[in-house]
Amino acid sequence: MVVSRRADLMARLLDALRRNGAWSVSMSQAAAERIGVNTTDLHCLNLLSDGPMTAGEMARRAGITTASVTGVIDRLEAAGYVRRERDDSDRRKVTVTLQVQRAAQDVAPVFRPFVQAWRGAMDDYTDEQLELIATFLSRTQEVFQSEVARMRAE
């Protein structure tokens, strides 16, 4: 049976995405251990790097219950990584803000070697190739977001 070049490339890409996903989980676990938090807490810190969000939004984006996110916020606040702020108009609502200086002190150094290695891995690509890769990664993120939403809705 002859496999077309496109079918072979698609199979290679899908396999690479699967493997990268698995390695991403392993990297998060190793990083969380180094930082001294659990992987869910690290995941929430990563989400907060996009900006402040309510506890409910964090729970939704992290895929955990609101009861669980309370524990995450408690641990991260005790460690100095986040700050809680009550909404003046709705006291039930809590906004969580990343304490950037603390994260820069404890979290960033753990990821710095990864970022440097990723930069090195991209050095040989042209600007046009990097644009293509960035577009591809944005599209894969959209697929992840829609598929996670679909799975949670079922």
Automatic annotation (TrEMBL):
<dbReference type="InterPro" id="IPR000835">
    <property type="entry name" value="HTH_MarR-typ"/>
</dbReference>
<dbReference type="GO" id="GO:0003700">
    <property type="term" value="F:DNA-binding transcription factor activity"/>
</dbReference>
<dbReference type="GO" id="GO:0006950">
    <property type="term" value="P:response to stress"/>
</dbReference>
<protein>
    <submittedName>
        <fullName>MarR family protein</fullName>
    </submittedName>
</protein>
<dbReference type="InterPro" id="IPR036388">
    <property type="entry name" value="WH-like_DNA-bd_sf"/>
</dbReference>
<dbReference type="Pfam" id="PF12802">
    <property type="entry name" value="MarR_2"/>
</dbReference>
<dbReference type="InterPro" id="IPR039422">
    <property type="entry name" value="MarR/SlyA-like"/>
</dbReference>
<dbReference type="InterPro" id="IPR011991">
    <property type="entry name" value="ArsR-like_HTH"/>
</dbReference>
<dbReference type="InterPro" id="IPR036390">
    <property type="entry name" value="WH_DNA-bd_sf"/>
</dbReference>
<feature type="domain" description="HTH marR-type">
    <location>
        <begin position="6"/>
        <end position="142"/>
    </location>
</feature>
